[in-house]
Amino acid sequence: MNRVRAGKLIFRDPVLLCGMVYLLLYFDASGFLRLGLLAAVLHELGHILVYCIQQRHLPVIEVTMTGFCMRTAGERLSPRQRLVLAVAGPAVNFALAGVWAVRLAQAATIRGSAFWAANLLTGLFNLLPIPPLDGAQMAAYAGALWRQKYGKCTQPAGNDCKTGTFGVK
Fold this sequence. Notes:
The protein has one domain (about 5-169). It has five helices and five strands, in the order E-E-H-H-E-E-H-H-H-E. It has helices at about 15-25, 30-55, 80-105, 110-125, 135-150; strands at about 5, 10, 60-65, 65-70, 165-169. The chain has a five-stranded mixed sheet with strand order 1-2-3-4-5, covered by helices on one side. It starts with a strand and ends with a strand.
């Protein structure tokens, strides 16, 4: 597997990744793919911002064909911090969808509607309880918090960058 590292970013298969992004953007005459990618990047920036607030440094981010993955293995994060970290991405998408819904009520545009839909769908998709999506992370760490508070303490399911789309490891 070919990897290129640039500071805190690790690009897995960079030639294939750049080529695929180039082709997708080349054939995106409508610009809707760009809005979807923007929603996904803003989603990830939500995770990164919360991580930086919690840990006071940037995470290592792996960029692959299927998305981004923050490497948090080895970091001292409590289940509560990990839960907040998982919630941050969808929260950004839902906040942007809410702001755009208000804007669309005043003046509806095709691009505005597409950006609203991209954020809403990105947020909803990431709530699915399927690892490594945020919904599975939220369920695992909410369960860990529940077990800490009310008894039986077991380890929540983990996540790895090899299977992930937009995941937190």
